[in-house]
Design a protein that fits this description.
Structural class of chain A: alpha/beta
Distance between the termini of chain A: 11 Å
CATH superfamily of chain A: Aldolase class I
Helix content of chain A: 40-55%
Oligomer: homodimer
Largest interface: A-B, 47 and 47 residues
Radius of gyration of chain A: 18 Å
Order of helices and strands of chain A: EHHEHEHEHHEHEHEHEHHHH
Number of helices of chain A: 13
CATH architecture of chain A: Alpha-Beta Barrel
Chain lengths: 309, 309
């Protein structure tokens, strides 16, 4: 049993900003390494048109490999019905559908209104429900820009709550609430997650934070206070924005695991194995900025012994 | 009025790990720049033997300059009675005396036992009380390695509390509780600060966190939960440990101010002016690693307007 679920998204959120194709074997080894370190859910790829993101041209092969890893929940991102159906055909366990709460961001990202994206989500849920028992993936609604938007600035908490309620009513099995651009702060995080939890009841809510402005782990602590118990993270904090040189991306998986384990919250993840995977991935991704501190500073004296996975 | 006090220590904790002498004019400009940005307390130097830390050979001149800056509380570190008396003669407003809770760390740092350091603190308090009214500095007891030690590993919470009570009884006007080596985590921080506050009553307690393992700002959030309202920080997170290449040092002043202001907690500090000082200091300290994210990623859209100092 774990106290807090840490899900890897570097294989999707991280790789989508890497400007060259990462070999399929490397992606497979990354998934294998993390699964062996105890990570029990990985967002292994994105089902976007290959023209837009050639990085995921090998999605089918990566998914097929990930599905062989025992105990691993294989998740994939889908921005529309077409991507979701492809993911279902390939047998992924979980589909993370993403729409932006910010209207402008949604239009910039998927060229349609947030309402149109919600309608598409309804179709995805129907499509999943039409599948035979045992072949129905978990359908997740991801709310991007829930804590701010680089185009619109502030994003209204009321709007986030309304959209959360709508996708929950539409049949979302889980929600992801995402600070896509690193605008969130602990006060806003506590307020927003508490509000959404009271609105949608028992649906599991995962937090997806970026560390762009350094508040990633403080935001995790704030979300823990709001009883959030699942977090996305990226190995080495991979996924920095190409428009902000040096800026970090997702919160760093190994630093997150370190914080949680140090606090006495079990993740089921062996941090030293995780750091070994980081080194392997970093070697393959030469010149990509790897963030995070624990891999550089090392674990505190006596830590490993007290926190054996 | 400010909600949270942010004190600069880069001029002391940062500079003591810079391997070359930083020109006196640069140190003065740093103090001036931060005071103009709204920072109302700076630990401007350390009164250690010049043989041990030649960086602070110009302490008298830096203090004299800092004392001309209106509204600024001029603090200085002193590791012993001799340093404290020199600081008093020069007219500093506040003396931050430091001892390590970890016996081994105290011996490595100042070559005596923690008990001997406490006895020295008693003499410093007496020396300050013997001075004429109006020339008595505020005497602060800083408890280093309060959240762990690179030599001993875990540091007992009971021992920290006992020492806090002893220095409070000895006449400390304020306490600094320091995670000197970045071993702390939010759960330990909440526990320790709440415990010490309940032990020592009304004495102001400041937190001094290092970001060596990435948890600096999460630890700040935890300390805020324990009603701590004063924090040390270092511009650009200057002060990394020479034994951990790439590891960051103190929590970064500008990132801390960003987090607090984003949360709606007033610091009185103009973050854009602070970033301008960072750039000035960074130019002078070529090749020194500057940490922190907000200077790289930029403030969120619409932030500056909403949070004008």
């Amino acid at each position: 049993m774990v106290d807090v679920h840490v899900h890897e998204v570097g294989t999707r959120d991280g790789l989508q900003s890497v400007p060259f194709f990462v070999p399929t074997e490397m992606k497979k080894a990354w998934c294998t390494g993390e699964a062996e370190a105890g990570v029990h859910e990985i967002e292994v790829c994105s089902f976007v048109p290959v023209k837009l993101l050639p990085q995921f041209a090998d999605a089918a092969e990566v998914v097929a490999h990930a599905l062989t890893l025992e105990g691993l929940t294989v998740a994939a991102l889908a921005p529309n019905l077409k991507g979701a159906e492809r993911a279902m055909q390939l047998g992924v366990h979980k589909i993370n559908y993403v729409l932006s709460v910010s209207e402008s961001h949604n239009r910039a990202n998927v060229r349609r209104s947030t309402d149109e994206s919600i309608e598409d989500f309804v179709r995805i849920v129907e499509s999943a429900r039409g599948r035979p028992e045992g072949q129905r993936p978990i359908i997740v609604a991801g709310l991007a820009t829930a804590l701010g938007c680089t185009i619109e600035g502030n994003v209204s908490e009321d709007r986030v709550r309304q959209i959360a309620v709508r996708v929950a009513a539409a049949g979302a099995d889980e929600l992801i609430v995402a600070d896509t651009v690193g605008y969130g702060n602990p006060a806003a995080v506590r307020r927003l997650f508490r509000a959404i939890k009271s609105d949608v009841g028992e649906i599991p809510i995962k937090a997806h934070f970026h560390d762009t402005r350094g508040l990633g782990l403080a935001n995790v602590l704030a979300a823990l206070d709001a009883d959030v118990r699942a977090f996305d993270a990226s190995l080495g904090g991979l996924g920095g924005c190409p428009y902000a040189p040096g800026a970090s991306g997702n919160i760093c998986t190994e630093d997150l695991v370190f914080m949680l384990e140090a606090m006495g919250l079990k993740t089921g993840i062996d941090i030293q194995k995780l750091i070994a995977v980081r080194q392997q991935v970093q070697q393959a991704l030469t010149d990509q900025p790897f963030h995070g501190t624990i891999a550089k500073a090392g674990l505190p004296r006596g830590f490993a012994l007290a926190h054996a996975a």
